[in-house]
Amino acid sequence: MGQGLHFVSLDYQKLINWRFPAVTRHYTAEDAVRFARGFGAGLSGPLHESDAPYLSGRKALPVIAVPLTDGEFWQQNPETGIDWRQIIHAEEALTMHRPLPAQGGVVITQRVEEIFDRGTEKGAVMLQKQFLHDENNVPLASIDVTTVLRGNGGFGGKSYEPAKVRLPEDRAPDATVEIVTPSERDAIFRLSAEIKAAASAGNGKSMMRGVGCFGLAGRGVLQLACDNQPERLKRLGVRYAGPMYTDEVMRIELWHVQPGMAVFRMWSVGRKALVLNNCYVEFSA
User: Fold this and answer.
1) In 3-state terms, what secondary structure has residue 148?
2) pLDDT in tens, 209-227
3) Which of 2, 181, 223, 262 is deepest in the core (most CB within 10 A)?
């Protein structure tokens, strides 16, 4: 822990009851374009033409719902008892209730859904729910965020049983795409060096935050599974398996497992390292 910082033990009930004020956020078409570029849109590659509607301001990528909910780093509040320097973003899932407008206003609410205990060695797992409505209270999207609190295990909570998504091992992917990650200039979703996980980057490139990784994968999967039609996307869920950096090539491999559902993974071509694994997408035909 940093000098001058003091953290109390994790208080389960306090976090479950933590009050998050509703936040109204307005975004312009230019904001939506900036987010898209932060997800690598517009760079050379097989998605260059598919990116056009999201760079012209005509449409918004569904995955911009995630940065729209970005706000105060509330886990830094000493009252939470969270050792925020040891937070690991583990999983994320976006459910679309209707397409996001190209520009407009959203009302964001959230809550801590549950906290599980994996013991002092493995830490705790916190599940958050975030909700986006328009200003007429019409639901647009909801987001499930799973965070590992590595410094907060052993508080005596429920054990954690993650949902299992398996990729087919007996056949090649049904579809693949390779995508370039944002350059340093467009990397608006860099990970703060204050977060402990970023300390191991040290390769001359910036490590990307989970939101940047989620958005880049979302662009690719929207093309592979939904033919780049945002209105077809129902749910996108990822499990983070390793870091993603600026200026590298990601390969997405996708398998159709049943009508309206596919599973996928994403890995760094140059480093031959998994970045996302055991992920899934649900979509309308």
Assistant:
1) strand
2) 999 999 999 999 999 999 9
3) 181
Q: How many residues does the chain have?
A: 285
Give ranges for CATH 3.10.129.10 in the chain.
Answer: 12-149, 175-283
Task: Count Cβ atoms below 10 Å from residue 71 Cβ, excluding itself.
Answer: 12
pLDDT tens-digit profile of 71-99? 888 999 988 999 988 888 899 999 999 99
Q: Residue 224 and residue 220: Cα distance in Å, rounded?
A: 6
Locate the DSSP E strands across 57-194: 87-96, 104-117, 124-133, 139-149, 175-180
Query: CA 221 → CA 3, 118, 202, 265, distances in Å?
Result: 43, 32, 30, 10
* CATH superfamily to which 175-283 belongs: Hotdog Thioesterase (3.10.129.10)
Residues 6+ apart with CB under 8 A from 193: 199
Kindly state the tokens that stand for 187.
Answer: 């990397």
| Residue 175, burial from CB neighbour count under 10 angstroms (0-12, 13-18, 19+) | middle
Residue 36 — pLDDT band, cuts 50, 70, 90?
A: very high
For 128, the token pair is 């958050």
pLDDT tens column, 144-197: 999 999 999 888 888 888 788 999 999 999 999 999 999 877 788 887 665 545
Parallel, antiparallel or unpaired: strands 273-283 and 261-268: antiparallel
Positive or negative, the CA dihedral 136, 141, 142, 148 is: negative
Q: What are 212's two structure tokens?
A: 């940047």
Predicted TM-score of the model (pTM): 0.91
- State the DSSP string of 18-40: -----EEEEE-HHHHHHHHHHTT
